[in-house]
């Protein structure tokens, strides 16, 4: 070996040279070892691939969009749980529909979901041009966010949407070949916006359009009776979204789960099952452990500061996608699945709520057991049966099981989504455990009977499973 | 040969220790940053729940006697809620961005994140008394 062929490694070379005569192999080995040490202290990048499948795109930017949506839901008047589920849901549907043609063997949702026909959707280009799927989704989601919050969208939040859209458009644009960039960008943006417009047009006839302008559908006269819901606060004399059950579901078959068993028969008899449900709430609140109080607050999705139960579940999905390094392909499938499930969960749950208009535990307990009873968290202004939280988290559970496990639901997972709101992260080993805790939190909070939670959870799980099965989703997603 | 192996072992060990020491210092620094923000968030949460409870207990009493809220009371409540929503939102945004950035750059594996959670909680006990 010649002197020229020797590799110099500053620092380490001199150290080793001091101890022994260097040969090429020794120095080469030293160089490799040094590289390993350096690599151990630094990050690595993933090499880009050349095929233009959606699975070759990062989902980082899409996760950012859903984080922004959470913030906007918090800050926009009228986005209470049903309205928020709809806003999150349609954004998820839009993201998938914008890029399905870049996923091998994927089918559009048009033709598979209730009254969304292929004829109403823009046709993706199949020749001459490959879309930049990041730009397509970026444009689609940005438009859909503007559409969903429309009349109540604050100027500052509109600016945030515009800035995020511009940021990612610029970032994606920089990666493109200058000769073809302009056409590629234009066509990608055009396609994304066309899909958003089509889904928005579809959403307008679902019965929930602009409902954020009058979320309580006032004027409304609640049904009356000894077992019926009565106002639980002085501000809301009428319940939230009493006509929501009339909204068009995304999957008609999801409404098979909208008819849970009848609630236990109302009774004042201390030996009755109904009384036992009420006294269970009362005793639970009186004997809550500090951890149970924390659980009640953690899942409460908090006084005036969080993005509703749907937003919490979307936040969990965002976290799971990030920690599993999911690509854009898996992210759009996940957000669409969850979006469809959440929209239908609230329609189904609200049907049960207004089919029975069941009195809340706080009203029953204060009237018949203890007038000084106080719940741990505020009772929302709508009937008890079934629990919205339990229903929507049941959907989340089943969709997470499908996306992140082999079917058994086991997944060691720390929900960090509430750290931002001042809560300690909570650990789970299984998605079912997570859902049960969320459902039970309503009992600990004193705002739901056990039957509301258990039957709500069953409804949600049914809907979640149905969303997974009834739609022809792409397989082998990454 | 034995000497060579010994030297390699020392160099390798020093390098690993160097990395670990840097990692530990960095972990403490990052945990302190998050703990400071989380402490603020926990205090704000307590304030928020306190305000929410005051409002709902007042509403409960009114509801019991079927007295509606006056327009002024309602406005005042909305104003308090709005202030908390904006404060919480701004802080939540800061926390999310900080956590995302730390996770993207330094704590990528589940184990690293668990260690980070533990270090942050420990630091919180110190900074958030």
What do you see in this structure?
The complex is a heterodimer of chains A (478) and B (129). Helices cover 53% and strands 2% of the residues of chain A. Chain A is an all-alpha fold and 478 residues long. In chain A, strands 1-2 form a two-stranded antiparallel sheet. Chain A starts with 11 loop residues before the first helix and ends in an 8-residue tail after the last helix. Helix content of chain B is 90%, strand content 0%. The radius of gyration of chain B is 25 Å and the shape is rod-shaped. Chain B starts with a helix and ends with a helix. Chains A and B meet through helix 1, helix 2 and helix 3 of A and helix 1, helix 2 and helix 3 of B.
Write the layout of secondary structure elements.
The complex is a heterodimer of chains A (478) and B (129).
Chain A: H1 12-19, H2 24-41, H3 60-75, H4 81-99, H5 133-149, H6 155-174, H7 178-203, H8 273-287, H9 290-300, H10 308-323, H11 328-356, H12 361-368, H13 388-404, E1 410-415, E2 426-430, H14 431-444, H15 450-470
Antiparallel strand pairs in A: 1-2
Helix pairs in contact in A: 3-5, 3-6, 3-10, 4-5, 4-7, 4-10, 4-11, 5-6, 5-7, 9-14, 10-11, 10-13, 11-13, 11-15, 13-14, 13-15, 14-15
Chain B: H1 2-64, H2 71-105, H3 110-127
């Amino acid at each position: 070996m010649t002197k020229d062929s020797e590799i110099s490694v500053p620092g380490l070379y001199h150290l080793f040279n001091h101890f022994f005569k260097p040969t090429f192999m020794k120095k080469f080995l030293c160089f490799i070892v040094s590289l390993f040490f350096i690599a151990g202290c630094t990050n690595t990048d993933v090499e880009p691939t050349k095929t233009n499948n959606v699975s070759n795109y990062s989902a980082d930017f899409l996760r950012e969009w859903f984080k922004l949506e959470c913030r906007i839901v918090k800050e926009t008047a009228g986005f209470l749980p049903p309205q928020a589920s709809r806003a999150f849901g349609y954004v998820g549907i839009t993201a998938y529909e914008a890029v399905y043609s870049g996923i091998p063997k994927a089918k559009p949702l048009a033709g598979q979901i209730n009254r969304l026909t292929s004829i109403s959707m823009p046709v993706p280009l199949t020749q001459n041009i490959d879309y930049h799927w990041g730009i397509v989704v970026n444009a689609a989601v940005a438009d859909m966010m503007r559409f969903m919050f429309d009349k109540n969208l604050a100027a500052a939040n509109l600016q945030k949407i515009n800035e995020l859209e511009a940021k990612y458009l610029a970032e994606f644009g920089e990666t493109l070949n200058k000769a073809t960039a302009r056409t590629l960008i234009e066509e990608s943006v055009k396609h994304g916006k066309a899909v958003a417009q089509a889904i928005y047009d579809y959403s307008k006839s679902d019965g929930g359009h602009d409902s954020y302008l009058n979320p309580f559908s006032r004027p409304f006269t609640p049904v009356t009776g000894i077992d019926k819901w009565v106002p639980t606060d002085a501000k809301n004399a009428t319940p939230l979204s009493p006509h929501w059950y009339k909204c068009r579901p995304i999957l008609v078959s999801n409404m098979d789960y909208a008819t849970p068993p009848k609630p236990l028969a109302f009774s004042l008899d201390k030996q009755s099952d109904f009384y036992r449900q009420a006294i269970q709430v009362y005793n639970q609140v009186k004997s809550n452990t500090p951890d149970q109080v924390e659980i009640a607050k953690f899942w409460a999705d908090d006084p005036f500061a969080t993005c509703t139960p749907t937003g919490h579940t979307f936040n969990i999905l965002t976290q799971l996608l990030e920690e599993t390094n999911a690509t854009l392909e898996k992210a759009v499938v996940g957000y669409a699945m969850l979006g469809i499930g959440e929209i239908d969960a609230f329609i189904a749950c609200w049907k049960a709520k207004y089919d029975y208009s069941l009195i809340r535990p706080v009203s029953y307990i204060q009237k018949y057991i203890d007038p000084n009873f106080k719940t741990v968290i505020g009772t929302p202004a709508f009937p008890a049966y079934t629990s919205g939280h339990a229903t929507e988290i049941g959907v989340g559970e089943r969709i997470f099981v499908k996306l992140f496990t082999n079917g058994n639901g086991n997944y060691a997972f720390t929900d960090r989504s509430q750290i931002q709101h001042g809560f300690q992260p909570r650990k789970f080993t299984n998605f079912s455990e997570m859902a049960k805790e969320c459902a039970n939190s309503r009992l600990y909070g004193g705002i739901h009977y056990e039957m509301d939670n258990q039957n709500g959870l069953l409804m949600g799980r049914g809907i979640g499973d149905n969303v997974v099965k009834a739609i022809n989703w792409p397989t082998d997603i990454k | 040969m034995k000497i060579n192996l010994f030297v390699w072992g020392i160099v390798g060990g020093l390098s690993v220790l160097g990395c670990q020491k840097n990692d530990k210092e960095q972990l403490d620094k990052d945990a302190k940053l998050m703990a400071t923000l989380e402490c603020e968030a926990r205090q704000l949460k307590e304030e928020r729940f306190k305000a929410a409870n005051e409002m709902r207990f007042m509403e409960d009493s009114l509801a019991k006697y079927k007295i509606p809220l006056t327009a002024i009371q309602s406005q005042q409540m909305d104003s308090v809620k709005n202030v908390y929503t904006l404060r919480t939102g701004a802080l939540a945004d800061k926390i999310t961005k900080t956590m995302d950035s730390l996770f993207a750059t330094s704590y990528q594996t589940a184990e690293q994140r668990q260690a980070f959670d533990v270090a942050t909680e420990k630091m919180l006990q110190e900074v958030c008394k």
